[in-house]
Amino acid sequence: MTKGSERLNSFPLTVEATYWKQGFFNVTVDYERFIGGHGESIDIHCQHVDEKIEGTINRTANSNGTPRVMGRSALKRWFQETVRERGRVKVTILSPNSISLRAMRTTLECESLNL
């Protein structure tokens, strides 16, 4: 993936309290077409973690059919160890069934994603 296409397939995520406490997040309608189908597995590669988190895509949790990435306790643990509630994470879609997550620490990082 080229740098330009990575930017097109990356988006900022605010880790809302529910995400932080339960280990999931919703993908916005702008990026939902890049994520796999309901019930499919999704590999979640988290910054500073050697092993991927094996998650699931849920497209029935949201009434508009946008995907919810379910990472359960492993994603919950990563959120709680890496960002605070309402902190920012950069989500990069590597393929329909693989994403990476990286904590965003600076305003400059947010600006690079046009926030």
Structural class: alpha+beta
Q: Assess the beta-strand content as a share of residues.
A: 25-35%
**What is the domain total for the residues?**
1
Rg result? 13 Å
- Fold-level CATH name: At1g16640 B3 domain
Task: Provide the CATH superfamily.
Answer: DNA-binding pseudobarrel domain
Spatial ordering of strands, largest sheet? 1-6-7-3-4-5-2
The helix content is 25-40%
C-alpha termini separation: 22 Å
How many strand segments? 7
Describe this structure in words.
This protein is an alpha+beta fold and 115 residues long. It is built from 4 helices and 7 strands, in the order H-E-H-E-E-E-E-H-E-E-H. The chain has a 7-stranded mixed sheet with strand order 1-6-7-3-4-5-2.
Write out key terms for the chains shown.
single chain; 115 residues; At1g16640 B3 domain; 7-stranded mixed β-sheet; globular; disordered N terminus
Task: Sum this structure up briefly.
The protein is α+β, with helices and mostly antiparallel strands.
Write the layout of secondary structure elements.
Layout: H1 3-8, E1 10-14, H2 17-22, E2 24-26, E3 41-46, E4 53-58, E5 68-70, H3 72-82, E6 88-95, E7 98-104, H4 107-112
Parallel strand pairs: 3-7
Antiparallel strand pairs: 1-6, 2-5, 3-4, 4-5, 6-7
